[in-house]
């Protein structure tokens, strides 16, 4: 029996610290400075956000309790939507900007259930069930579109999102009142065609927010499901795909089917996540409620330390904490520093887009 | 007349072989009348091949002889279906079973180890060994569906270890595959296929192409173990000595047809080579020190990588003007790195002087201005624009760096590409270098490996470099193409006085061609030999006192 061990000459360190198992052979003796430089490079985005949060928190002059309370609300609103981004990254498809379609489906579901006047928890469960069903169908379609344009998933996701958004808006602007007659005419505009801008669902909000166990269960179940998925055959197939489509194909993995499964799961989680968001808000902003959820979720995940090729559950929660802390404190910090809350508002939008651009650049540099 | 003679000879060989092979049992795989066309080009023409249990069957042929197509058909590669399928019949254990996809091939007990690894570098050895067929609990499979069933890690670890043990290998199961040297990666690939239930046929495509001779021997020992288990091995290699020492039977393909079959006691590398190419091969030979001067042309002093992921100790090397310098070592020891440093592919620290001028780290422009050029070892990834034409590939570097193949339109401050000039030069090169193609406008991706390398050399000729660095110039090539490429390189040195640095793991070739050979170990030059010195000494230095392996 030949027993092999890997010598440092072959072991390529990846910022994993000093390689001391050199057996007297030369390898990189990384200095302390290099280790620090590596750490900074690896966690640049997270560190930038950490510093911004600290500065913003001090400038805003708010209490930790206030920030903590707000963060709880935002965790309910956003955690599952950010979790939805993990699976496509694991499967090598990058950031799934098409999660916006899951968000639109959840709005549509909520409007339908609200129109049918199914009250209380029953209504909430019905909205979840409808969301799951529609997300499965549309996730399948998005997956097929992405399979037709392999290697360009992110741009395809963005454009598919735009397409979906326009079709969705057309449905509510023109379809309601002409093709679709709602049970409750009150939700239509006064001219009888087109949906109102805002649909009130305060009734559902009251039930939902009074069931903290339900909220906690949904967030934990989503995170737990993704964690569990990593240990399943499907999760392993995602990981293999993440290492290279061609390799996966040569190993006999059905690449197209696995990619579709990744997008279906992502769309379902996005739908569930956004449904929690709108119920927590207590109203459905019909035409604009879904916009930008893809950008903000992606930015939060990247701020948590994920990259376009590597993301874990911890990145979701670190990102959620950092990104939303910045969101909470920036208007107040803007008010205190520049005497204008609007500057703080602009700043957070700027921060979201800048995070994605920076992550793309850093990712490209890593590849080079 | 010739065809008739060939056919009669072939029928004689086949009937003789089959008579002898019948004693070994029933054929596991039978391929009958297999033909395949890509467009108008016929890649395979009525190929018959039978493989018996417990046989190591060699498949040899020049680049473009149809080997890869035959392997792709057997392995159910999607490229076959996408290009119109094939005609003929494949029987697996007596049952008609033409694999239409890789999944089907695996189900029928056909496994393949690819020349360009199908491994996941960021995953562990264990996960790679069980990739695609992880074990889970059947009861939970039924409850939640196979996809959502958790993988039984302990069981998978045990099966992965067993698969490697069957090859006589023991490895740390948690080591990431990217950390393994090339030959161990190859073992992991074989282990993955061997671990599959019901493996009948194992196809190995150039398994030793990037291995040292020592590692190749380990590999062949492992294959002999598999043979004893009754697995059929289809061994495809350009290294005829290995084919001869390992195989029980060898089939020779030429121009898509089976031209001969040979049985073990009669195997002879010379005969095989003759059948492969249909004529004798004159080996390239360099008349040493013909152009070499005492002037140092390239001086590298303590060059080390600035990139943490690339290990290099600090290379010091001097190359004289007009010299042919060989760089060699075991795989993974960095002997191809000097080219990457020189041409700015990897940022470095230290000092590089080229033709008396000091270069800055990472500047390809400076190196090009000083007359250096590189043909990298990763031809397809770094050396060629696969989706561009031969003409474009040949002219590109010279057009952008030397302003050749450009028409000036006075008084405009810029020029336009002169396609006619480029095509004329490409045609000249096609004729001079014997590039097998339809013309200068054919896409490079459609050419065989040897012809792609010739296109690279043509590009180097267009650049007329003072110093040419070539990485693994003959990797994955047949014997005829190899010698042709080596001759071309020597011609460049002889006729235009190009200083050549050839980084290669083929020591025999370097000994034939080079004035001096620098041996690398652990990312540094350990010793520089005169080419005529004892090769055994070179191999000893290459392996080092501290070998790569603890044998138990």
Number of domains of chain B: 2
Q: Tell me the span between the first and last alpha carbons of chain A.
A: 40 Å
**Mass-distribution shape of chain A:** globular
Classify the secondary structure makeup of chain B into a structural class. Answer: alpha/beta
CATH class value of the largest domain in chain B? Alpha Beta
**Span of the ends, CA to CA of chain B:** 58 Å
Q: Low-confidence runs of chain B (pLDDT<50, min 5 residues)?
A: 1-13, 545-552
User: Rg of chain B to the nearest angstrom?
Assistant: 25 Å
Strand content of chain B: 15-25%
Helix tally of chain B?
Answer: 20
Query: What's the overall geometry of chain B?
Result: globular
Q: Can you summarize the main beta sheet of chain B?
A: 6 strands, mixed
Low-pLDDT segments, ≥5 res of chain A: 7-30
Strand order across the largest sheet of chain A? 2-3
How is this structure best described in words?
- The complex is a heterodimer of chains A (368) and B (552).
- Chain A is mostly helical and 368 residues long.
- Chain A has helices at 32-42, 44-60, 64-83, 86-90, 99-115, 120-148, 153-175, 202-209, 212-229, 233-243, 245-250, 255-281, 293-303, 313-338, 341-367; strands at residues 2-3, 198-200, 283-285.
- Chain A has a single domain, classed as ABC transporter involved in vitamin B12 uptake, BtuC (Orthogonal Bundle), CATH 1.10.3470.
- In chain A, strands 2-3 form a two-stranded antiparallel sheet.
- Chain B is α/β, with parallel strands linked by helices.
- In chain B, helix 15 crosses helix 16 and helix 15 runs parallel beside helix 17.
- The interface between A and B is large, with 45 and 55 residues.
